[in-house]
Amino acid sequence: MKKIFKISLAVILIICISSGVVSALSKMGSRSSEVRQIQTILKQKGYYSGNVDGIFGLATKNAVIAFQRDNGLVADGIAGSKTLTALGIKNGMGGIASSDYELLARIISAEARGEVYLGQVAVGAVIMNRIEHPSFPDTLSGVVYQKGAFSCLYDGQFNQPVAESAYLAASDVLNGLDPSGGAIYYYNPKTATSKWIFSREVITTIGNHRFCK
Question: For an engineered disulfide with 172, which of 108, 154, 177, 205 has Cβ 3.0 to 4.6 Å away?
């Protein structure tokens, strides 16, 4: 009986690790959304200049080591709990699950990959603002997949590769940046066909998008 119990625990542990329930250290050879978050933050801080690809290679390791040295941590190139905390990562960026970080970056890329960087951040901010607004679902996935909310889910753009800038924008949004001024809608006046959206009060214009209440 004890043997069966031990085997069951081992199976459960393997399942948990493979599904991401148990967090492993991010180190050389790791591939995950957490690594992408690490690269994003290190890039923002000037430690990393490579691609934000979620692959923990030599360039990422060297960037982690440099960050660790500057922050009084053991410079072993392994992103353990202390390094992740110093980077501001805990169960996903800013308390946000890794899957939500990926989803936010994907929707920003699909909706605004051709926009100026601040415009990409503003689009992400609108999505996060909707979560807090009583007129919208209270989860990121609920907002993104709300019926008819985003045309990119139906025209194929949502399934395109995510632009690197979108990951950086998602990071800025999750860290509290909101250049939209609290907007819950945005539209491109050159392509919008809904008369209703033109009736919304415009807060600001960034790139090709008007952001409104």
Answer: 177
Cα distance between residue 87 and residue 93, in whole Å: 9
* pLDDT tens-digit map of 57-105: 999 999 999 999 999 999 999 998 889 889 887 654 555 667 788 899 9
Answer whether residue 152 shows pLDDT above 80: yes
CB 75 within 8 A of CB 65: yes
Tens-digit pLDDT profile for residues 171-195? 889 888 999 999 999 999 999 988 8
Q: Which of 72, 82, 70, 87 is nearest to 35 (CA)?
A: 87
Confidence category of residue 4, pLDDT binned at 50, 70, 90: very low
The continuous run of DSSP H or E covering 15 comes out as helix 2-19
Q: Whole-angstrom Cα distance, residue 24 to residue 20?
A: 8
For residue 206, give the H/E element and its range: strand 202-206
**Three-state secondary-structure class, residue 202:** strand
H/E run at residue 205: strand 202-206
